[in-house]
Amino acid sequence: MGKKLDSMIKVSVILPTYNEKGNIVPLLGKLVATLDGMSIRNFELIVIDDSSNDGTSQVVEEFSRRDDRVKLTVRREERGLASAIRTGIEISQGEIIVLMDTDFNHNPKDVRRLIEPVGGHDIVVGSRYIKGGLMEYSWIRHYLSHVFNMFIRFYLEIPTRDNLSGFIAAKREIFREMDMNLIFSGFGEYHIRFIYWAFLKKHKILEIPVIYQQRAYGESKFKILENLINYTRVVLKTRKDVILP
Ligand SMILES: Nc1nc2c(ncn2[C@@H]2O[C@H](COP(=O)(O)OP(=O)(O)O)[C@@H](O)[C@H]2O)c(=O)[nH]1
Ligand SMILES: [Mg+2]
């Protein structure tokens, strides 16, 4: 209450990092430019770093000294992509929450198109598998990922075509009703649980096309076989795991 409207944070971008020193500073710069370009001044860029050993947190810290809308949390105990996102959401204050990778797989310019429809919709998903969307990787990874996403869609009987992109904008309210520990665990599979839960809750979901770019610097932590096996297990369990109270 009592808070002046213009002091309220409009957008929080959650940025999980593990060894992204080469990517994170250019990414922060591009996000600032995108949000400033939308005349949104009251945003926060929340970096959750899991004690990377390449100096990621140092370069973010330096950036945050120049722009206090960049906020750094370094986790020393807990590890993992989905739980880092959960930590970020929990400390965020924005009316709109954006989830994205920090290696340029997701184009920071697309944040504009992702945010704009929030309001009319509860959740906006960046999708590689609708018209205009693409994955700029080898045809084999693109094909495998597309087929796997079709399996998720048909098995869970949900309308969304990309259920693993990890590029999401959503209204803050929806996270209040969610079991955050259940949804945000593991690696990229949180996206499957998140959308399945949102579908059960009848939240309004919109998919917009995005082009998934190659990571700019460094190495992916995605292990294709291990992750595919694990994601399959998650899909098979999701109906039992994600039930509404
Ligand atoms: N905080 C945190 N971030 C992580 C962890 N693992 C991956 N990430 C970040 O999550 C995003 C996706 O990881 P990435 O290795 O690129 O997987 P891919 O996009 O599926 O190939 C990147 O921005 C990583 O920096 C982790 O254990 N902790
Ligand atoms: Mg990546």
Description of the structure:
It is a single chain. Helices cover 41% and strands 17% of the residues. The chain has helices spanning 21-37, 56-66, 81-91, 110-115, 139-156, 173-176, 180-183, 190-200, 224-241; strands spanning 11-17, 43-49, 70-74, 96-99, 123-127, 134-135, 168-171, 205-209, 211-212. The protein has a seven-stranded mixed β-sheet. Strands 6-9 form a two-stranded parallel ribbon. It is globular, with a radius of gyration of 17 Å. Bound molecules: guanosine-5'-diphosphate (GDP) and magnesium ion (MG). Guanosine-5'-diphosphate is lined by residues 16-18, 20, 48-50, 79-81, 84, 101-103, 105, 188, 215, 220-222. Guanosine-5'-diphosphate binds at residues 16-18, 20, 48-50, 79-81, 84, 101-103, 105, 188, 215, 220-222.
